[in-house]
Amino acid sequence: MIGQYLTSSLLHKKHRVFAVDSKPNDFVGSDPNYKLIQCDITDKNTIISAIEDNHIDVVVHLANTVDNDIDALITDQEIKSSKVCDKFIYSAADKAGVSCFILVSTTDVYGPQKGREPIRETTAEKGITNYADMKMHSEKLMMKAFKKSSTVPVIARVSPVYTADHTDNLHSHVYDPKDNVGYIFGEGDYGYTFCCVFNLIDFINGIISTPQGRYDGIYNVCDSKMITAKEIIDYEKNRHRIGAVIQKNFGAMLFNKAKMKVDYRYFDPSLCYNNWFFDNTRAKRIAPMRWTLTNTK
Predict the structure, then answer these.
(1) CA distances (Å), 179 to each of 24, 186, 195, 229, 253, in order?
(2) Whole-number Å distance between alpha carbons of 219 and 26
(3) pLDDT recorded at residue 252
(4) Per residue in 21-55, pLDDT tens?
(5) Which of 180, 184, 209, 254 is in the most buried spot, having the most CB atoms within 10 Å?
(6) CA distance linking residue 221 with residue 197, whole number of Å
(7) Following CA atoms 192, 197, 198, 201 in sequence, which dihedral angle do they give, to the nearest 10 degrees?
(8) What is the pLDDT of residues 118-166, one digit of tens each?
(9) Contact at 8 Å (CB) between 158 and 102?
(10) What's the domain range around 53?
(11) Which residues are CB-contacts of 276 (< 8 A; sequence separation ≥ 6)?
């Protein structure tokens, strides 16, 4: 999903796009600047050839990313595939002299925090999920691979994404699958940090167009405003994507830590009132983060 929006944007800006995917798509044959290399992400030889043979300027690493390449359940197989892929793709980019490498990671790497201070890129990583572990490994391997390289490494730690049609991540914060109902505590004025996909696309485009050497490192990529539980409920109700909504007592909610570790979308309701906000000041120097739940079409 993310790759489709990014490809559309890059082609509109007249970039040449070499996409690696396991399935065909509607871009094939529609634009002379688009080429699909169809293979599995673990196909080392094919992907290395794609990087070495096409004079690639920028690599955007979206593989093994929830909402783009894999579903919400992160098992040992996904972790293994990610590790295999990361090692050779970083090495190939370095040897081919790629000018910039953008890794899409996750704010999940920060894990639960104490207090309500804004979470900045310098905040300690305390991820407790398989997805956080997988992306943290990707980040560390990337920074090591490009430590003495001319390739500029950029890590985009992205909050859970959404579009007008893809609201699974929003939905999971206000929906109880056990009872098959939406739920809210109090007036629903507590909130969460998400990322409209178009803010992520604008950020990637901004990195691509930024002069060499001024933009390496880690960025929190997310909306500039939290989305409240009430806003999610109203948004989904207006589009007939959520049925009954009940008010729940906080003490009545139970959670499963084991399930939360493997399921990216499993939400622990005890985190509702933490109101953690991810500081996106650094990313806003690259892109304005102008998209919100209200203006996303």
Answers:
(1) 38, 19, 28, 18, 11
(2) 31
(3) 54
(4) 998 999 999 999 999 999 998 999 999 999 999 99
(5) 184
(6) 10
(7) 120
(8) 999 999 999 999 999 999 999 999 999 999 999 999 999 999 999 999 9
(9) no
(10) 2-162+193-225+276-284
(11) 113, 116, 119, 192, 193
Name the one residue in this structure whose structure tokens are 């500029």: 152
Per the structure, how many domains does the chain have? 1
For residue 218, the domain's CATH number is: 3.40.50.720
d(CA 4, CA 41): 17
What is the pTM assigned to this prediction? 0.95
Residue 169, in any domain of the structure: no
Note whether residue 173 is domain-resident.
Answer: no
Compute the distance between CA of residue 295 and CA of residue 283 in angstroms, rounded to an integer: 20
Which tokens sit at 119? 């979470």
- Per-residue pLDDT, 158: 98
User: What is the C-alpha to C-alpha distance for residues 128 and 130, in angstroms, rounded to an integer?
Assistant: 7
